[in-house]
Amino acid sequence: MQQRVLTGTAIGALIATGAYVGTSDEATISAWSFEASKYINPLFRLLDPEEAHKIAIKAAAHGLVPRETRPDPPILHLNVWGRAFSNPIGLAAGFDKDAQAVEGLLGIGFGFMEVGSVTPLSQEGNPKPRVFRLPDHGAIINRYGFNSEGIMAVAKRLGAQHGKRRLAESVPASSWVQGDQNKPAPRASSGLLGVNLGKNKSTEDATSDYVQGVHTLSQYADYLVINVSSPNTPGLRKLQGRKQLKDLVKKVLAARDEMQWGEKGPPPLLVKIAPDLSKQDLADIAAVALTLRLDGLIISNTTVSRPDDVIGAPHAEEIGGLSGKPLFKLSTDVLRDMYQLTRGKITLIGCGGISSGEDAYRKIRSGATLVQLYSGFAYEGPAIVPRIKEELAACLERDGFKSIKEAVGVDCQ
């Protein structure tokens, strides 16, 4: 079966090559390659979910995925943390855990992506099987448990890619202005890179693991994320408590700020939270974020709850975090609450259940400045990225918005 999938991937690459031979129009080449991917991606569903995941990473690492050369619509351009994003659509952490395919994945046309979660020491994660599809619901349940090759392996890969990525950035953030039509936008394939940090299962002092991650990997990151919300590492979610989170963030910020940074300054620091939090939990997190001037929050990770519409479905009873379409409402409700609690002063990334431009638009209207995909990308493959960007641009134009930032949080006012 692996051979069948790899053969299909190779055929897709040949189709794209044929398009190149037949035309010199780069836009046509991109269109052909994304169209070809629609026929290849269903083959992955014939495989075990984790095996399909591994093959997808290998395909991206070897350039056997479409490459976006078409510029993003100007209405999708935005500047966040002094960094230029050609579009607000990102790939969430968990897909490329060990930074094996950064160039290939960003080349698909994401505005940004996250690698990780990365742990200081390599660890296998939880026993297999640990990933389950709920195809009728567009959902996935996983209990990977921070399987990671470790910080040094990731640092080696990111270090090798770092110079190449910097050269590929066509326009530095300092010279690109939101809405200025006279200045060229960043290329769609020069997206930004986030590094998501985790802790080893056996580590008792969680802070030391996150600090080690900062010291080793922050030099390669456009932004950093503290993941304290995976449901698959025992005790991790306790770090979301007010005192624990405040202590952790203060020490991680200190570790980041003691390093030497150039004109661009240190990478922004974000925290990724769970959707399974009480109103008081959310208020506490908002208070910490505002007090310590956190750069952002990612809302949200997977849920340990099971919405009514998935109960009784095959694999729904499996232990682990649920992602995909059933998570959309829960994560969006938490997003809206957090936008109100932080009074719009903290940049929020909306994650959970996005499978269309309308979904992304609803996240933005609920307070997100940026959004992330995971399960939708796993099910649909590369073709989802240009489709969502096109649909999102149409949503903004339909409602009279001239930029992403004009739409952020409008449903919360």
UniProtKB/TrEMBL annotation:
Residues 76-396 form the Dihydroorotate dehydrogenase catalytic domain. InterPro entries: Aldolase_TIM, DHO_dehydrogenase, Dihydroorotate_DH_2, Dihydroorotate_DH_cat, Dihydroorotate_DH_CS, Ribosomal_uS2_CS. Its cofactor is FMN. It is a single-pass membrane protein. GO terms for biological process: 'de novo' pyrimidine nucleobase biosynthetic process; pyrimidine ribonucleotide biosynthetic process; translation. Residues 172-181 have a biased composition (Polar residues). Keywords: Flavoprotein, FMN, Membrane, Mitochondrion, Mitochondrion inner membrane, Oxidoreductase, Transit peptide, Transmembrane, Transmembrane helix. Residues 169-195 are annotated as: Disordered. It is found in: Mitochondrion inner membrane. Pathway: Pyrimidine metabolism; UMP biosynthesis via de novo pathway; orotate from (S)-dihydroorotate (quinone route): step 1/1. Its EC number is 1.3.5.2. It catalyses: (S)-dihydroorotate + a quinone = orotate + a quinol. It is an enzyme of class 1 (oxidoreductase). Binds 1 FMN per subunit. It comes from the Eukaryota. Belongs to the dihydroorotate dehydrogenase family. Type 2 subfamily. Signal peptide: none annotated. GO terms for molecular function: dihydroorotate dehydrogenase (quinone) activity; structural constituent of ribosome. GO terms for cellular component: mitochondrial inner membrane; ribosome. This is Dihydroorotate dehydrogenase (quinone), mitochondrial.
